[in-house]
Amino acid sequence: MSIFPLKISKIFLYDEPAVPQIEINDLAKFLGREFQVDVEVRRSLFQHFETKDEVFEDLASCRIFNIRIPFEKHKPTREETGSEEQGQSGSIVLYDGFELQNIYRDLIPASEFSHNEFHLAFTTRLTCSYDSNDYRYHGRAVICSNPAIISTTGIIEAPAKPREYYLKIYEKIGQGLNLDRLKEEFRERFLDYNDLRLCKAARTYAMQAIFYHITGMPFCESKECMLYNAHWQEELIRMLEAGRLCSGHQAALDNYRKCSA
Ligand SMILES: [Zn+2]
Known about the structure:
The protein is of the alpha/beta class. The protein contains 11 helices and 8 strands.
């Protein structure tokens, strides 16, 4: 835990303009303080770097249409490519997170990886990964490695909502379901779109991505630690409320700072 083979020289954050709740400038200050490193905030990856039309076609080609089969490159329609270029539509589209990561990596010049710079991009695209244990894709809030990707849609959709919420949907579906009212009833128990708590969630997943980068291990067993791998929204909310690392990870971070001083 105390040995960090990698020392980050600079962090680049790429914003997702559709989600102001990330509060990217505050996140940059937080990470700068925690890791004692220079942090640069940039616009979205596609605004910051020159993005050719083929990139949007590539993005559309890593959409997932059948969650039961491993990734197969998809030949996108012109409409799909166009919607990538214009930003996301209202419906949720699934993407293979590792394919997406390859596209993101190709956009960043090699010179910006040469001194252990770390890149972290936010997106509304729902990143997913195929799990060969249960032969299906699962939504992911974070795709680690460099560049790392944090999906705001993944934060909302990947950890499961309380069982009672799903039961109430089934119960009420025949009697005129009012989803907004039901969401309001459960608002303390899961994060939703435009949720102000996304700011804390962004910090949490950014910590996971950076710890993975420097240690190769993103997750912690302690449910109170920011590095816990929450499978349930209620677990995630408990972590956000605690807003801290466990004593072991805090000591590791203190040590990292000492070594970089
Ligand atoms: Zn921990």
